[in-house]
Amino acid sequence: MATSSSTSAEQQFDVILIGGGIMSTTLGTILKELEPNWSIALYETLDQAGQESSDPWNNAGTGHAALCELNYTPRGTDGAISTAKAQGINEQFQVSRQLWSHWVENGTLGSPRTFINALPHVSFVWGEENARYLKDRYEALKPLPLFRDIEHTEDLDEISTWAPLLTEGRDPQQRVAASKIDSGTDVDFGSLSRQLANHLTGSDVDLRYGHEVTAVSRGADGRWQLKVHNKAAGQKFTASARFVFVGAGGGALSLLQSSGIPEIKGFGGFPVSGKFLRSTDSSVAERHHAKVYGLASVGAPPMSVPHLDTRFVEGRRTLMFGPYAGFSTSFLKHGSITDLPFSVRPHNLLPMMQVGASNTDLVTYLMKEVTTSQKRKIEALRHFYPQADDEAWELITAGQRVQVMKKDAKGKGVLQFGTELVAGADGTIAGLLGASPGASTAPSIMFRLLERCFPAQLETWRPRLQEMIPSYGHQLNEDPRLLAEISAATSTSLQLDA
């Protein structure tokens, strides 16, 4: 791909990135390292990077590594615990750690403490059946190298040393169980996105805030043409590129639809907003040092898994509990209420209707959540933290999540709780749809994009990719020696063993 020159009529680039969140900034930084002479532009609608789903107050779960998230280790119909998804997500998070370590060492990122902090990950349940499940999960994970450090207990006193807020005031006769892994982290993807964006600006990337891409179409010359609106100046212009990445969060669906690529046909989106209880009371926050996940209530979707999290935001320790679901037809927190209706097309109408008909439990759950009072939300918190004082907690609105609706192999509409990479057949355009565990696995997703969209360059890039990611091409769970070496190295680089 040769570097393109600009013209006054149309700004031309090799690569255009849409959106200033963790996905676009990660891809841009990787590409600039692999091909420093490529011309790259990034357009972000808001006035700063990482303000939508990447922002720590908008991100439902940070540092996803499947260490404590119980929906990644379901019990099968045969009674066995499936660990496949947990292994896959943890492998991807190991890639994230390696890339961030590489960027800290080469100066792309600043002090690790500005975006990542060591934090134990804890799974916590109560009740006979749930306690049996957690013990079975522990026994299924313990033999795996990726989860070798997992601990488990049903002793209330021991749990109190892990997370005292969980046990104080709890009925000693209630059966509880907890598992813990100390190698967990908390990640501020907003800070990470902004640091990468600043690096891109200093690497001759044409990064423009307050610029909204309104449409993407194929030009007669085969290049992708983007209509861009400079909102501050009230001006519109056209930019083109050989490759386009649509990393616009909930806004990606409409832009991929405007591109006309066949691969987006049948895809729809279902927006779900999140709300959290937040405590900035230091007398509370300083007594909880863990990310604690429980089990979703019966009939609730995986996105509703309750968790009591320590968060480090701009150097300050806070607590968040939730999520509580809300509903808006907007696909972005700063989006439009017309996003959902305008996303409906003839090709995705039937799949969306089928999803609605087969997910009445989700609709019921959302209706119940929307009407739940503040008092009831505090009651849910007290299942985790029995002595919670409602005066110490405020309700905040987090970001929007657009769950993917698509056709399955049989052509039937299904709701997917994950992240979907959609790419054109010729690899010149790609975009990302979906939600969790997106941000935490951004590097793996972007490396998968490179393999899909740049096959001709991949062999040339491979030595450089292996410098960035020492485990590139390997599964760490199958190589305990390499896992131990990489874990030690990244812990040191990211200051996680201090």
UniProtKB/TrEMBL annotation:
This is Probable malate:quinone oxidoreductase. It is an enzyme of class 1 (oxidoreductase). Its EC number is 1.1.5.4. Signal peptide: none annotated. Pathway: Carbohydrate metabolism; tricarboxylic acid cycle; oxaloacetate from (S)-malate (quinone route): step 1/1. Gene3D superfamilies: FAD/NAD(P)-binding domain (3.50.50.60). Belongs to the MQO family. It catalyses: (S)-malate + a quinone = a quinol + oxaloacetate.
